[in-house]
Structures are given as C-alpha cells and as structure tokens.
Amino acid sequence: MRFFSIGIEENNLGLKKSILRKIDETKPEGFIIEEKQAGNLLFINYILLNPYNSGPWNLVREKLQQNIADIITDFILNDMQLPMIERIVRDEFFYFEKEDMKHICREVLATVLGKKDGDSRLSSLKENWRARIRERIIEHLDTNSELIIDGFIRFRLKDFTKDLTQGISGIAEELLIEKEYNEFIKLLRYFVEIQEPKVNEVHVVVEDDRKYVLLDDSYRVINNDVLKELAKEISDKEISYDDLLISSLITIAPSKITIHDCEKIKNTELLNTINKVFRGKVSYEP
Q1: Residue 246 and residue 118: Cα distance in Å, rounded?
Q2: d(CA 29, CA 66)
Q3: Fewer Cβ neighbours under 10 Å: the N or C end of the chain?
Q4: Which CATH architecture has domain 201-285?
Q5: How far is CA 158 from CA 13, 70, 104, 121, 242, in A?
C-alpha cells in the first residue's frame, strides 16, 4: 500500500542520491521505498508491505508524516540551498557576468551555511525557518499524499524565497559597490600616472584636529594656488578633510608619499585608497 510520494523535478535529480539516502536511513519499519518516473518528475514512494499488521493507520500515517517532514525540511535547508540560490541569481541578477554570478552564489551559500559572517537575513535563515518549513510540510501532508518539492517551495514557501532573495540582493549590492570602487581607483590611478609630479616627495602630517598638513621633500609646507582652491571647497561644499587629502595628493601626483603618525588616521579606508592609487609609492613613519 502506497502512503506518501515525494516528487523531485528532473533538473534536481543530481540530488536524488542525497534524499534517497535520508529516506532509506530513516524509513519506519515495515516500509519499502519505490522509485517511479513520471514525465520530468521522479517520485519516491513509501510502500507499506503489510498494511493489516502495522497497527492503527492514523498512527502509522502520523509517524510517517513526522518522518517525511524532518527529511524534506533538512533537504530544503541543506541540499536545495545551492540550486535555489543559483536560480534566484540567474533570474533576478542576470545583468552580472557569469564569474560575478558564481561569486555571489559562493558568498551567499557560505553565509547561509555559517562559514562566514554576513547579512543577518542569510546567516539566520536556517534557524528562523526550520520550524516553519516543517510545520507547513505536515499541513500539506494532512490533506495530500504527494509532495513535489520544487512545487512546494514555489507555492508554499514564497516568503522563505523572498527572505533568501533579499539576502542575496544585499551581497549583490556589495559586489556592485566593490566593482564601482575598483573602477574609481583605476580612474584616479590613471590621473596620477599621466601627470608630471609637481613635488618629488610629499610628507603627510596629521595634526591634533585631524587636519592634514602636506610638506615637500625639504619639509616645507606645500601651499600652492591649486591646493588653496581645493581647501576653499571645504567651506563651499560638504567635503571632508579625508577627501581633500586624496584630492590634494592626486593634484600633486608625487613620486613618493610618506605618512607620519598614521595611527592618528582612524579612517582605514582612506589609507587603503591612498595605497591603491599610489601603489608602491607609499611609506609610513612613526
């Protein structure tokens, strides 16, 4: 007698061994597992060998429901994560190049599996959804003897998919910002490389008020007209002293930069940017 059937779509048949192993290891006593192909679906059927010697059917059914709910919940939250992530990235973030899509998938999966810190929506996804997914599977099996996993995810777990998509969106946005930043660095580096150095070496000194003083290789204050114009922009616009420092260094395009008392510079991103724009030209002095 067939009690329940679990269906897997053809595009996920690579996961067949995983779910069959889980089913075979946990199937209740008296059941055998039968596989049947129907179109693009593989059905895994629970067959009760001796239905009249197995006790009350409602208890047998309830026990099997609990068993199947545990298996499919685990299957969705572990085995199905990568196919789901890949499908969402392919459908929602198609404008990325293939390598970037692979990068997003790797980052998302690592965050979901707890292998790296990241978006809280992803890192807590399994914890937040395990009980809800299990409960919905049991509700489905109360009135249905078949459960097609892909269809169940598509129609009964739309909010779960939405949470996953929002988490992926956060990582995709981070990648876009990183790519834009790298393009910006390339542009600044180009501006520096096409200019003749106005000063051979610039010493950057951090004052107590976190303003920067630029000195030339003879330790004289650099205070030319261009830098005066840049300094005026502080009062005209909302430009930080960090931005002014970058602008000044690019304008001067020195062959060497020495930064003094760099521990006073709390903005580590500023130091990273200077290093990337003036690669190989930056040194530090206490």
Answers
A1: 30
A2: 14
A3: C
A4: 2-Layer Sandwich (3.30)
A5: 22, 20, 21, 15, 45
Q: What angle do CA 19, 107, 152 make, to 5 degrees?
A: 35
* Distance, CA of 119 to CA of 122 (rounded, Å): 5
* DSSP symbol at 194: T
The C-alpha atoms of residue 159 and residue 166 are separated, in whole angstroms, by 10
Residue 94: both structure tokens together: 């198609």
Mean pLDDT, 10 residues at a time, the chain of 286 residues: 82 77 82 86 84 65 88 91 93 94 93 76 86 96 92 94 93 93 93 90 84 88 66 58 85 93 86 93 90
Q: Where do the DSSP E strands lie in 128-271?
A: 146-148, 201-206, 212-215, 256-260
Q: Are the CB atoms for 49 and 32 separated by under 8 Å?
A: yes
Alpha helices by DSSP H, listed for 55-157, are: 57-74, 81-92, 98-112, 120-123, 125-143, 149-156
